[in-house]
Amino acid sequence: MRGLRGALVAAAAMVVVVAGCGDDEVGGSAADAGAAPADNGVLVYALDGPVRELDPLLATTRAEQVVTRQAHEPLVASLHGPFGAGRRERGLARSWRPSRDREIWRFELRRRARFQDGTPFNAAAVLVNAERWRERAQGRTLLPELAAADAPRPDLVRFILSRPASDLPERLASPRLGIVSPGALRRRGRGAGSVARMDRSGTGAFELRERERGTIVVARNVGWWGTRAGLGPALDQVEFRVAPSHRERVALLRGGTVQMADSLRPAAKGEIRRDPLLTYVSGAGNRILGLERSVRGIDSASAIEPLSQVWLTRVGVE
Prior knowledge:
alpha+beta
């Protein structure tokens, strides 16, 4: 029954994540306001296509980016707790500042964060990822100006550019530039710089738990740094189901099998409006995101492209 399943996700106001900008660190936290993550069950999400690639750098489809972003955080993000609780917190990069000519950018990193495999997140880990971006064609496409990177201290990394760039922080918020544990990367020989293992390879609020044909499950990362700051996540688990057919996704949503259905055609609006338990938000490309009204935290058109009002973030294909 939709009502029973929907009750499990009534608090699915997952962590807010938007692209960060500016030079000053945001102070305070949801923890200061007394917010705390709750155990709120499972959200089932219907994707519009297969997930063949979970390496964030190689995730080129909307479905792939939705999934990989849950485990792999980019350097730049802005977060606040479930239901908008607390003040905003920046993500892995706590602050950033460019040189006067915008050719050198300094990023101060969050301390005491770890990858899911236990590897410390620090400047050395960022340098490994920056080198991977420079060596691989996909990274050079996203950051063509990146000439080098260095680490004056463990919590500070500098990106040295071949030409000025005023939008570097915004581009570093891309889900395709999610930071991967150095321990998960191949370091030598053929395939160097590719992800050798996907489980426990990110710093994010969720970690990959199961991957079967047509289904991917991510579960709460109990060691996520954001939990200490009262940021959530507000869910224990997200189950992604692949349903390439538009009609199938609509049927799954109307039948209560899923609580969110991605990339629905505008024609689905009429069916959704007739069901008092469903709603939708509009996005770019004339597509909509259908969802049960029990799912909180997605309540405006800006929520879908990128999907920045909930923890399922940045689903626009880069």
